[in-house]
UniProtKB/TrEMBL annotation:
This is Transport permease protein. One of its GO terms (cellular component) is ATP-binding cassette (ABC) transporter complex. Keywords: Antibiotic resistance, Cell membrane, Membrane, Transmembrane, Transmembrane helix, Transport. It is found in: Cell membrane. Belongs to the ABC-2 integral membrane protein family. InterPro entries: ABC-2_transporter_component, ABC2_TM, ABC2_TM_bact-type, ABC_2_transport. GO terms for biological process: response to antibiotic. The lineage of its organism: Bacteria, Bacillati, Actinomycetota, Actinomycetes, Jiangellales. It comes from the Bacteria. It comes from Jiangella asiatica. Residues 11-240 form the ABC transmembrane type-2 domain. Coiled coil: none annotated. PROSITE patterns: ABC_TM2.
Length: 242
């Protein structure tokens, strides 16, 4: 890995995003619109305060997964990745550059979505707002890492979408949002214990319930999954799509 090349890759990705307003809207605006829709569904009542923080983790995770996986796949199918890897750029430089660029977007996304939820939709959380934002950022980064990993196995954008019910939906069902994880059947609880989104939702639940939330253990697990997925992505990334 070369920091200069990684930074140059991140800069190139950010410049590309600047010329794609639809993608920017998808990443920065859609999570806030989904939170507003949820607030409207529950009429801003206690149920919104109960599940809102958890969905504040899930929505950015989902959006960043989708955008990152498709954007990386396009780099490979267009031949850009093959040209880059024929130069000094390594696979890890490429993936870390993407992670850095989309990490900046994830930070902005978390700031916007959390501000909308807390300031405009009056979502109640006992913990500090900055902790809420920090957890949302790490959850979005998890979506980036998973998207980069999945892009190595997809040949078309349609295949990327097919990964969603295989990788995202089970995590959504078992993360504790619908049923507390300790009330799941033993086998499903064991599965949920090895799914990263479970720890993201646990962290948001802790922020919602406690004024002094202890979330760093959960964040550490989410970060460890992100690093592992980036490493696996570097090991499995193909130069081009057959």
């Amino acid at each position: 890995m070369t920091p200069r090349i990684t930074l140059a890759t991140a800069t190139r990705v950010v410049q590309q995003l600047r010329h794609d307003p639809r993608t920017i809207a998808l990443m920065l605006v859609v999570p806030s619109l989904l939170m507003a829709l949820l607030w409207w569904v529950y009429d801003g009542g206690p149920l919104f305060d109960q599940i809102g923080p958890a969905l504040l983790a899930i929505f950015p995770f989902l959006v960043m997964f989708l955008v990152t996986s498709i954007a990386t796949l396009r780099e490979r199918t267009s031949g850009t990745l093959e040209r880059l890897l024929s130069m000094p750029t390594g696979k890890l430089d490429f993936l870390l550059g993407y992670a850095l660029a989309f990490g900046v977007v994830a930070l902005v996304q978390a700031l916007i979505t959390s501000t909308v939820a807390v300031a405009l939709l009056d979502m109640q959380a006992a913990g500090p707002t900055w902790v809420l934002i920090a957890v949302a950022v790490f959850d979005a980064l998890l979506g980036v890492a998973l998207g980069l990993f999945v892009s190595a196995f997809a040949s078309t954008e349609f295949q990327v979408v097919q990964f969603m019910p295989a990788l995202i939906l089970p995590q959504f069902l078992l993360c504790g949002l619908l049923v507390p994880r300790d009330q799941l059947p033993d086998v499903l609880e064991a599965i949920s214990n090895v799914l990263p989104l479970s720890y993201a939702v646990d962290a948001m639940t802790e922020v919602r319930a406690n004024a002094d939330p202890a979330v760093w253990a959960e964040i550490s697990v989410v970060l460890a999954f992100s690093v592992a997925l980036l490493a696996l992505g570097a090991a499995t990334l193909r130069r081009r799509t057959p």
